[in-house]
Structure to design on (228 residues):
């Protein structure tokens, strides 16, 4: 299984861009990078995912390096409500067929300050 | 659309008691998962299911059993609860669309074993 490494915590000023890094140096060619976040006491929430190309949606942008060994989640204008734990996950593929599962690490606690 | 619903939301058990946690999804998802989250930790996968009538072990399956008799429901059972099983339990579901595995999470069940 490809594993990920994230800093345990980061701070960001409200209104500024938050850039959350993730290393996944053992990622395989057909594995996707997913980002989820968990606001205190709530269930995790999907943010974005990508394979090779950069991706953008209404919540965030995902930048994946050309060698795919690392990625960065960008929240362009962070708000106080973006304070959460952010998880970078590489989707594993176990066995034959379609046994997909998500393996969560400890993530990065992003604190957005006023 | 209710999404993923977990029942109950809170429960206190005595050591040795048994209980069943119910997860229900109304999105016709094939995959369902049970995770536990201990204070300050990431989510750890207990068991998962890739379809009705099938289950598989995750990272921390000991002390738990699961059943997926109906596609929309995934039950997590504790036969003889132990204090080490005090945790927040999250259920999730997803649909195996090629290239995407966005998972939807319930709001959690907070279980205390005394």
């Amino acid at each position: 299984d490809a594993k990920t490494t994230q800093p345990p915590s980061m701070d960001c000023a409200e209104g500024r861009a938050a850039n959350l890094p993730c290393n996944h140096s053992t990622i395989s060619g057909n594995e996707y990078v997913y980002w989820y976040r968990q606001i205190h006491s709530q269930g995790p929430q999907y943010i974005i995912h990508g394979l090779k190309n950069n991706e953008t949606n209404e919540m965030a942008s995902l930048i994946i390096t050309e060698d795919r060994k690392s990625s960065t989640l960008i929240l362009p204008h962070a708000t106080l409500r973006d304070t959460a734990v952010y998880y970078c996950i590489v989707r594993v593929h176990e066995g034959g067929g379609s046994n997909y599962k998500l393996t969560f690490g400890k993530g990065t606690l992003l604190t957005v300050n006023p | 659309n209710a999404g993923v619903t977990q029942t109950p939301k809170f429960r206190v058990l005595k050591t040795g008691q048994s209980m069943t946690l119910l997860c229900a999804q109304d999105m016709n998802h094939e995959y369902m998962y049970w995770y536990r989250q201990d204070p300050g930790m990431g989510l750890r996968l207990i068991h998962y299911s890739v379809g009705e009538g099938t289950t598989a072990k995750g990272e921390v399956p000991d002390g738990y059993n699961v059943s997926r008799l109906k596609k929309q429901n995934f039950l997590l059972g504790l036969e003889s609860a132990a204090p080490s099983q005090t945790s927040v339990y999250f259920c999730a579901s997803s649909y195996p669309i090629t290239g995407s595995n966005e998972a939807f999470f319930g709001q959690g069940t907070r279980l205390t074993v005394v």
Summary: Chain B has a mean pLDDT of 92. Chain B touches chain A through 29 residues (CB under 8 Å). The radius of gyration of chain B is 13 Å. Residues 55 and 72 of chain B are 14 Å apart (CA to CA).
